[in-house]
Specification:
The chain is mainly α. The protein has one domain. The longest helix has about 35 residues. The chain starts with a helix and ends with a helix.
């Protein structure tokens, strides 16, 4: 039967897979462009367009990977039963700032690309939602701490 423990493990596995995928794409992107991979029948994207977006991808890798590592740490803490702790608030705070940084990178790198502007807006919205969740968790941590000191 599917339960919350398995769901957390699946989330950790998926997070780690995305980290590996992002690093692999960063490592092999120049080779893929040189080989004409993106202009093949499967993608039909001009190599010049992909080459123009390479700096945006590499710039967004920094906050993106930082967010993924914080997501991984948050999930590992939750798996260990540490939910209402200050460290999780810090992880969520870092994830939200990483989303805002990614939004800024996409907005600056958009240069007239509606798709990148929409991605920037989505990243900023995700940062805002994570910030709200962080505030809720922070209140829960404060209430738990108060309850722990009550006799």
């Amino acid at each position: 039967m599917w339960d919350s423990k398995r769901s957390i493990v699946l989330s950790i596995v998926c997070t780690r897979a995305v980290i590996v995928f992002a690093v692999a794409v960063a490592a092999f992107l120049p080779f893929l462009i040189d080989s004409g991979f993106f202009s093949s029948s499967a993608f039909r994207i001009q190599d010049a367009v992909v080459a123009k977006l390479m700096p945006v991808y590499y710039a967004v890798c920094v906050p993106g990977l930082a967010a993924l590592f914080n997501v991984n740490a948050l999930l590992v803490a939750i798996r260990a039963g540490k939910v209402f702790v200050a460290a999780n608030v810090r992880y969520l705070r870092a994830i939200s700032w990483c989303c805002f940084a990614a939004a800024a990178v996409f907005a600056v790198g958009a240069r007239g690309s509606l798709a990148l502007v929409l991605i920037a807006a989505a990243a900023a919205f995700a940062g805002l939602i994570i910030r709200v969740v962080k505030n809720v968790l922070e209140s829960g941590v404060e209430m738990k701490d108060e309850n722990d000191y009550t006799i």
